[in-house]
């Protein structure tokens, strides 16, 4: 009879199945005994039946006796293993058991295995993006370039640096000019040292690719990103060839392509574009006047508390604005007047700063002189201000840290005198109030009425100087308003000589103005250029202004800068928008609106509606453009009905006699060019002039000049 060793009966297979199920249940219990694998249960205990058919029972301990299914007592092995009719040694899985890989029932899943722990986290790029966002936020708060560079180095993952460029620029785009300037400064600092040139280029490529998405959240994203790219080119962290290469990778219909075009045409094509781009977000000083003043006030307060002169001098030196030390002097003296107990400390600081050469002699004199000019206002808060100042001046001179030149404009008692007479002083006080009200109300007609009420046209240049000086120390809105006001004043009550005289006064005092306004030279050049673009000044007037300035003065340099701005390509459009658009954009829009309302009226419109449209434009100082375009349209369309509109506007006071005269003057000045398109332009213009004289539209001065020019006009026609 063949042996059945090595094979399983059907009964044994059933036992194996049940044992496997029980093993899974018991193995999950923490209190289960040491178990053996189900396969070892079978492989170790093959059931063997003796030839006699009976199992021996002698000497079997009671606890090792088990009844079989047939009711017979059978001996079983210890722990329940073996014996006919038994399950063998159940679930024996101790460490000594071995898996027989030759077993026909071998299952590889029963091989021992060990679970290995693994940290589940974000992908490396996501972690990098989170980290750099924190670095950028901290940099915007502290302005510490070195700390930001150090943090970026420690972060590692240099292969992701293009994403840092993208994140930095995109975060700055949605913030103020200060953060935009800080972002550009940081990119320049990181260039080559931390971030390679290729990575910066790649970062900007990513930005250009995402320009469409950025434009959804940031309305002027195209212009801002174009300026970032122009700034990067100016700062030499992007090669100029980058623009050409980038255009090839972008669709012409994409915002990214428009960004490149804007950077090329609006920011990088004009002479001196580098200076304009660098100063677009506040200049290369990276610090505003207000911030400097606050730091000066803080360090002086801290000095009064601590009395540490060396530390105060160190803080003044770290400001890095030696041209602005007169502000330190002025504020220190005011603080000495406010806190009488602090006067010895303040004088000690000023003396030591002068002896060390930290504050120059000229800066010290200017600080005292500025305080002298504001003594009247200061006396409102400190009644003894004048007396205190008169005692401080001789003390400082006697100790040798204040130059005696301060007394050149002083009386015998040492009081700094006012060079202007009483009338000029009162005029200045009045116009400061008028200008402040204008900046609040934007009401040009009201300002003109206020000036006429003052009745001092001989002081018009002084008004212009004060207007621009106040605007330069304010935001772009006020600068734009000042330029618009100049256009209106030139048409209404200011002569060209008044405008020229005012700018001469500004340029003569440019060096002093720069003491209070860090970017005064650039701002004044823009005001000059804007005056030329707005036809307030002619280019020849700039030469006249230059001839009246001392040679080699800072004002001459400012004048040359203005001439360079005017000579640049697309100068008109760029200068009109130099302060962010504002009314510069409104002028262009107004021209389009004027043309449309005239076309509508000419095609059968109602006079009252046309007048209301002119009124709605809200630019009364620009109504001479209505006159000019109306006369040109009347010549082109051969429709004198438009004259009825001018008559109605004049009757209502909507267009003043000054505006009417200005419109006719502009037509007269451009008559030769107009005759190229309208052959009988001269003849028609003479007819309109005679008509206007009868209606009383024109000033007598124009009538006399027009009479002199009539033969020439007739010849032109």
Compose a concise summary of this entry.
With 717 residues, the chain is mainly alpha-helical.
Secondary structure layout plus pairing:
Blueprint: H1 10-27, H2 38-44, E1 65-67, E2 73-75, H3 124-142, H4 145-155, H5 161-173, H6 177-190, H7 197-209, H8 211-217, H9 221-234, H10 241-249, H11 255-267, H12 273-278, H13 289-306, H14 309-319, H15 325-338, H16 343-355, H17 361-373, H18 375-381, H19 385-399, H20 422-441, H21 444-454, H22 460-472, H23 476-492, H24 496-508, H25 510-516, H26 520-533, H27 539-547, H28 554-567, H29 571-576, H30 582-602, H31 607-617, H32 624-637, H33 642-652, H34 657-669, H35 671-677, H36 681-695, H37 700-716
Antiparallel strand pairs: 1-2
Helix pairs in contact: 1-2, 3-4, 3-5, 5-6, 5-7, 9-11, 13-14, 13-15, 15-16, 15-17, 20-21, 20-22, 22-23, 22-24, 24-27, 26-28, 30-31, 30-32, 31-33, 32-34, 36-37
Provide keyphrases for this structure.
717 residues; mainly alpha; Serine Threonine Protein Phosphatase 5, Tetratricopeptide repeat; 4 domains; two-stranded antiparallel sheet; disordered N terminus
Can you give a write-up of this model?
This protein is mainly α. The chain has 4 domains: 125-279, Serine Threonine Protein Phosphatase 5, Tetratricopeptide repeat (Alpha Horseshoe); 289-399, Alpha Horseshoe (Serine Threonine Protein Phosphatase 5, Tetratricopeptide repeat), CATH 1.25.40.180; 423-576, Serine Threonine Protein Phosphatase 5, Tetratricopeptide repeat (Alpha Horseshoe), CATH 1.25.40; 587-695, Serine Threonine Protein Phosphatase 5, Tetratricopeptide repeat (Alpha Horseshoe). Helix content is 65%, strand content 1%. It has 37 helices and 2 strands. The chain has a two-stranded antiparallel sheet with strand order 1-2. Strand 1 and strand 2 (73-75) form a beta hairpin. Helix 13 crosses helix 15 (325-338), helix 15 (325-338) crosses helix 17 and helix 24 crosses helix 27 (539-547). The protein is flat. The termini are far apart. Mean pLDDT is 77; it is low at 1-5, 28-74, 89-96, 118-122 and 409-420. One of its GO terms (molecular function) is ribosome binding. It is found in: Cytoplasm, Cytosol. One of its GO terms (cellular component) is cytosol. It holds the Pfam family MA3.
